[in-house]
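Hi support team,

I'm opening this ticket because the web form for multi-chain structure prediction keeps timing out on my end. I have pasted the exact lines I submitted so you can reproduce it. The total is 224 residues across two entries, so I didn't expect it to be a heavy job. Is there a limit I'm missing, or should I split the entries? Thanks in advance, R.K.
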Amino acid sequence: GNSVTQMEGPVTLSEEAFLTINCTYTATGYPSLFWYVQYPGEGLQLLLKATKADDKGSNKGFEATYRKETTSFHLEKGSVQVSDSAVYFCALRLNTGGFKTIFGAGTRLFVKA
Amino acid sequence: DGGITQSPKYLFRKEGQNVTLSCEQNLNHDAMYWYRQDPGQGLRLIYYSQIVNDFQKGDIAEGYSVSREKKESFPLTVTSAQKNPTAFYLCASSNLQETQYFGPGTRLLVL
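Hello R.K., no limit was hit. The queue was backed up. Here is the completed structure from your submission:
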């Protein structure tokens, strides 16, 4: 079936460290891929997306590249800030009909000053 | 300002009581969704609606009901049959096969 697997958290980093959160997927067809961010007590906000192989999504210093050969969409940021502390969700949406989006379990990030 | 609103922010339910969570969007999106989020877990789909007057069960529909009488509104009722309702409930909307956008959520607590 279709699924998304993210690295387990929490991830704890010092400010200005490099961030990688791994995400791999299983899907039929050619899905679109997303990263959402959730700050405490709030809903999910779209962070970035990619709709086809080799596309790179980027926003607010975060980026992720759609790798079809490894079925991955890892999130990276070169220098994290305390304000990046949140839960990050990787997600896929099938583009062959249907409206469901499948979410990973989320990875909590703590950034220390 | 376009967006999705959910109310209330916090909701308390007594045992045996039905409660209704509101979700309204002014993005002119066709599809709307309800998700449940438990602490430390991902999102699970409760119900979704692709068009007015039509809706489909998601992965955990038991104990919940919805209606879609207007394009902009998709209320969720948590019935007394839902034995473990304490969770964070998120509403989302999208146009067909496009990105989902989320509301701020409602936290439901049992008294």
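A quick check on our side: Chain B is about 0% helix and 50% strand. Let us know if the file doesn't open in your viewer.
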